[in-house]
Amino acid sequence: MSFILVAVFTSVFMIIIGRFMYIQFTGEVQAVDLLDYAEKFRQTDSVIEAERGDILGRTGMVLAGNRMSYSLYAVLDEEYTGNSPTPLHVTDLHQTADKLAPILDMDQSNLLNILQDGKNNDKFQVEFGRFGNDLTEEQKKEIEDLDLPGLYFDERLKRYYPNGPFASRVIGFMQDNEDGQLVGAYGVEEEYEEQLKGENGFVSYERDKYGYKLLNTDEQVNPPLDGHDVYLTIDQKIQTFLEDAMTTVEEEYNPSKMIGIVMNPQTGAVLAMSNRPTFDPNTRENMQNWYNDAISFSFEPGSTMKIFTLAAAIEEGVYNGSETFQSGRYRINENYRYIHDHNGGEGWGEITYEEGVLHSSNVAMAKLLWENLGPDKYLEYLHAFDFNEATGIDLNGEQVGSILYNYPMEQITTSFGQGSTFTPIQIMKAASALANDGKMVKPYVTSRIVNPNNQEIVFEKEEPEYVGQPISADTGKQLKDLLGKTVTSDIGTAQRFQLDNFSTFGKTGTAEIPNPDGGGYLDGAENYTYSFMGMAPKEDPQLAMYIAVKQPEIDYSFNGSKTTSYIYKTVMENSLHYLDVEPDQESKQDIDSVKLENINEQSTDGVVNRLKQDGFNVTVIGNGNRIVDSIPKEGDMVLPNKHIILQTDGQPTMPDLTDWTLREVLSLVELLDLEIDFVGNGFVTNQNIAPQTEVSEKSHLIVELKSKQKQHDEAMEEQMKSQEDESKEDEKEE
């Protein structure tokens, strides 16, 4: 019996030994190559994320870029340390919680609970929710400087919009799609998703049981291809002029909506575009709608449409400016209601058609359409001006208005901008015919696209795209002269839009707003959309601008143009000077202006004392003994109380920028050749470079701006919070 047992066990043992030897020599189990299996088990691929292309402005300013974002996690498993001479896991939970909590802005007890719970449940690692996500480079460095074991970071690129609300509805933003991938979801980010996103690479390596890379293992790296950089036509300074002016009007008149567009009418390049309400693409808080109203909001434009009624009448030879008509009210026969002029139908008696244009007479337009042009011919011109189709601007979300033209009254009211609806960008495109000898240009916001991997220009807009010629060059010239009189004439409705140094022409609009409850229009001076479509200089327009302000808080309708004229004059005047366009008329302010003389290479103290005595606000950069540069420049004409920035021959230092406007900050940046990012609108409240700190061309200035109203509101909130805290303390003492 013993012999049998020995024989059985010996046989089994030999079979096992044989099997092991077979596996040892062949490396296979059930036809599975164990070496290959082990390599596949240890082998892992890791994605190397491509860097999304930047979105840049006309002057190279980064409008949308990337920055590294970090997520913190803590390894708790002691086995991870292994044979390492220093611990690789968290060794002291209390110390880690105490030191980490302030940096994460997290309650120490909550942080300790996360660590303790992970330890008690034998978790390999724990994370810290929203407190540990989206950490900045500065926070990461602070944590690393704590020199605490067991703390590690995952990193990823995050889209960053350094200027906050600046042109946000043009630039757009990104968000997760249905597959959880971060993609462009609005504006340029969406329009050029394929060009911006790039192509991810990967790295292949062997890992340990925890998923971490083995030491001295071979790597296979396939590098990523970064996304293309998209350069826009948006100009930093002109956009800033527009944003600042619109913010001023927003704070003073509290309109429900505002739209502003600045365009080169000879090329179609959009130099600035802004809307109110706006939003910060970094947070998207208080984003009230998903529309870029400049290209998506179609509405009854009011009298700006008279530009195109006049263009059609002049082109057809049926406009006679010296011919007279009876103003006030008009109807085609007794079966139709009256059309009234905007002064309650009172009119101005029997006047010429030119006077009718200057008074912005609805009756004049109605008679031109019905009696001179004819509705069918006018409709041909509406189509020739492309009011029946989208402009094709390279932005997602463009909408098309509706030509309401089925019945006689609809045809008549369309002539003065009522009934039919159009978008601001449609009006801009149609009006460009006045600047191009009757030819329209297609508006666009992208000037070129560059591949950063090899600096190849993959797209560049070199020539304007003409998209029709609805009128002749001669008609365009006559129309410019006529619309110029609306600005310069004593009876013109656009007198408030006269510029200081440049001739200009354009047309005001005061559009009624349909009653949302149905039937008719809203009443009251505050229930209009006030607008202006204008260009300058008159003979050779370099800039075109459209402004619309809906429902500002005003008492009388004639004050509506205060809102639009402030924006137009401020932006147009400053932008033309910035572009070095030669003034074509003497400024009314030239009488009060003085010429900056004897500044460069002069004594710092002497120049400062003289300028202050003349009433100027002076800021000195550096502690040198003589002046080497300034803004405004020596020889410029400047108004009293102007802020003058003087640069000395000493080491430049950063001034206190508190309460500076963005325009003043940009002048400083131009003078010192600094890089700049800014957040917000209004006046500077914070700066990253402390006053009196030395700066160089490599310095990167970041400023935060807030409106005076916002500063006041925040101060009141802080005061109320302080009072509440004091009350709570008093209650505790009682």
Automatic annotation (TrEMBL):
GO terms for biological process: cell wall organization; peptidoglycan biosynthetic process. Gene3D superfamilies: 2.20.70.70, 3.30.70.2110, DD-peptidase/beta-lactamase superfamily, Penicillin-binding protein 2a (Domain 2). It is an enzyme of class 3 (hydrolase). CDD domains: PASTA_Pbp2x-like_1, PASTA_Pbp2x-like_2. Pfam families: PASTA, PBP_dimer, Transpeptidase. It comes from the Bacteria. GO terms for molecular function: penicillin binding; serine-type D-Ala-D-Ala carboxypeptidase activity. Residues 705-725 have a biased composition (Basic and acidic residues). Keywords: Membrane. Belongs to the transpeptidase family. This is serine-type D-Ala-D-Ala carboxypeptidase. It comes from Tenuibacillus multivorans.
